[in-house]
Write a structure and sequence with these properties.
two-stranded parallel ribbon, mainly beta, single chain, globular
Length: 155
């Protein structure tokens, strides 16, 4: 069917056939929206977008939940520290990936919050790491406070 205008509901909404939302639809709140079919077009705000939208952070920064699946981008000539918070502060789901990119000339230090382990992939090394200019890294959460980092320009 076709839904036109404003739609407000509470509880669970289930569709047993194709539902078309005219003029686009905005979903807000803390609900977990999911697609069960493959969309034919996507933009960076689409449900099911499979890219990594940019979140530019040219200052000291602590990652937040909405950084999940995004690219945190550094463009500054100044060095900055980005911190991975402990699970007690931000409970990312296990399997969360965040891409970290530095195109600025200032080094980005990826720091461990209290109790967080950050292992360089392929090693048992647990340490804060630096991302050099033009470096790109991905961090992957594999347990409550356990993250792994891999990429180029990472030391």
């Amino acid at each position: 069917g076709l839904l036109n205008g404003n739609l407000t509901f509470s509880g669970t909404l289930a569709a047993t056939a194709l539902v078309t939302l005219s003029a686009g639809a905005t979903f807000s709140g803390t609900t977990d929206y999911r697609l069960t079919a493959t969309p034919t077009t996507l933009n960076s705000d689409s449900i099911g977008f499979r890219g990594a939208p940019l979140n530019t952070q040219d200052a000291t920064y602590t990652l937040v939940l909405i950084d999940s699946g995004k690219t945190v981008l550094h463009t500054s000539a100044s060095a900055h520290t980005w911190t991975i918070p402990p699970n007690s502060s931000v409970a990312y789901p296990v399997g969360t990936v965040v891409v970290l990119a530095n195109i600025g000339s200032g080094v980005v230090t990826v720091a461990r919050g209290s109790g967080v382990t950050l292992r360089i992939a392929g090693t048992s090394t647990d340490q804060d790491v630096d991302i050099a200019q033009h470096g790109i890294a991905s961090i992957l959460k594999l347990a409550a406070d356990s993250w792994y980092i891999s990429g180029s320009g990472v030391s």
